[in-house]
Design a protein that fits this description.
mainly alpha, Butyryl-CoA Dehydrogenase, subunit A, domain 3, 71% helix, globular
Length: 180
């Protein structure tokens, strides 16, 4: 069986093919959760946001037009949901960043890394929601400026400004930490 592109699957979803929708979810559920978790800092809320994103994508499937990659469409839906959620609720401060790997067996180094991660998480949570989402999409998801602009429904110039302001704020809050 030939592997279909996400955009082709979405066109089949628009025709009522729930098997195609299941494949879309299978391919992208981890990414959706990861973005939401990095933004929100809470795994349960991240799961709720990811599920809501896929429900909205399913509901909007009849209107889907493959004008961009499906992943850009998914990022846009996740970004909107996360930013809306942040407007309604104060951010949750956690002590760890998701999916950090401990490569050091040294307990002192492990403790120092956990302290640093907690400070970085707090600094990220203190950013305005749009700046935080741009940082997550750029540095955690590896998107290019154009992709971020599409996902955030803004211009590349606006993304550059948001990143610049976020970097300045993070640098100010984290300047006392070494090795960031």
């Amino acid at each position: 069986m030939t592997l279909m592109k996400d955009e082709q699957l979405m066109l089949r979803v628009a025709e009522g093919d729930l098997g195609a929708f299941n494949e879309i979810v299978r391919r992208h559920q981890r990414t959706a959760w990861r973005i939401a978790h990095r933004f929100l800092g809470d795994p349960t809320e991240a799961e709720d946001i990811a599920q809501e994103a896929f429900l909205r994508i399913l509901a909007a499937a009849p209107r889907y037009k493959p004008s961009a990659t499906f992943s850009t469409y998914l990022y846009r839906v996740i970004a909107r949901l996360c930013i809306d959620h942040a407007r309604k609720k104060r951010p949750v401060f956690t002590t760890t960043l998701p999916e950090t790997l401990d490569s050091s067996p040294d307990p002192a180094a492990t403790l120092a890394r956990k302290d640093r991660d907690a400070l970085v998480r707090m600094a990220l949570d203190a950013l305005p929601s749009r700046q935080r989402m741009v940082v997550i999409l750029k540095y955690y998801e590896g998107l290019r400026y154009g992709e971020i602009a599409q996902a955030m429904e803004t211009t590349v110039k606006a993304v550059e400004r948001l990143l610049d302001r976020a970097r300045t704020a993070l640098q100010s809050r984290l300047s006392h930490i070494k090795d960031i």
